[in-house]
Design goal:
Layout lengths: L9 H8 L3 H8 L7 H14 L5 H8 L4 E6 L3 H6 L1 H16 L3 E6 L4 H11 L5 E5 L7 H8 L3 E4 L15 E4 L1 H14 L5 E4 L6 H14 L7 E2 L5 H14 L5 E4 L2 H13 L9 E6 L4 H4 L5 E4 L2 H14 L18 E3 L2 E3 L5
Parallel strand pairs: 1-2, 1-3, 3-4, 4-5, 5-11, 6-7, 6-8, 8-9, 9-10
Antiparallel strand pairs: 10-12
Helix pairs in contact: 1-2, 1-3, 2-3, 6-14, 7-8, 9-10, 11-12
Amino acid sequence: MTEAVSRPTLEAVAARAGVSRATVSRVVNGGDGVREPLVERVRRAVEELGYVPNQAARSLVTKRHDAIAVVIAEPEARVFADPFFALQLRGISKELTAHDNQLVLLLTEGRADHARVARYLAGGHVDGALVFSLHLDDPLPALIRNAGVPTVFGGRPDWSDGEGAPGPVYVDSDNRGGARAAVRHLAGLGRTRIAHITGALDQTSAVDRLDGYRDVVGDADPRLVVESDFTPGGGEQAMRELLDRCPDVDAVFAANDLTALGALRVLRERGLRVPEDVAVIGFDDVLPVAEECDPPLTTVRQDIEEMGRLMARLLLAGPAGRAGAGESVDPPAAGVVLPTTLIRRASA
């Protein structure tokens, strides 16, 4: 048998601090109207007693849950195998932790899970949602909008909320500009048969990178573009198809680093040297993948962790923000697009 340990109460904190229970409640719940010396006395008493607010009771007063849902529209196996998601979650977690918010992770294995996620969000369990890796024609945005939950999206949305309505708030990287920089670098090396292995073209990031490629190559041989899915296995399959179609290819721009990793494996299997025979560039600059490729991968860096942090910051600064958080960041009307940088290594 373990003896139960009683939790310190608001009354105990009030007695220790020498103030009223109402004063303690205002300080603990972030209310205004308490003089700073009293605030300090209450905070000191809270720390000395180890007082932890009752979250259910606190939510009744503040109408807040201090919890944010992170919705990733991908199956579990994909999320935990791709370091991109780990970096984005790390950025989100750091920002939420700094504002004393909890992260609630929701994954979707398929369309059947969307209704479950929507019910959870509509149930009043969280103060807002961060949603990323959406696919075209995904019902999640409409379901989340109907749930009435403040939302920030990761990646450029492919929809609008109607004429005259404010656009969805989102954070993205300059996918198109980064792709242009990669392909221009390959052209500057004298490569004339530059191929592109795309990401999943039901996602706007992959479409934007394909558009950036086309901005540079113009009316290139359409056989030089092979659709893939952002995975190493997809990169391997696409590289084999590409070499069978166009054995004279001399450069490859891959939609992300994992795709490039798969392409490099196939080039080695076929006895082709990188970069002497075929130069390769990826996208993301996910470490250690990019640095530990053979050879180390030239790639387009996007600050994935910063994207996650900024998504959380924008959400907390808007309707989901804590009262008195001290930040006056207004959510943008359209979105935030972060710059990208070409990182040169040995592969190109």
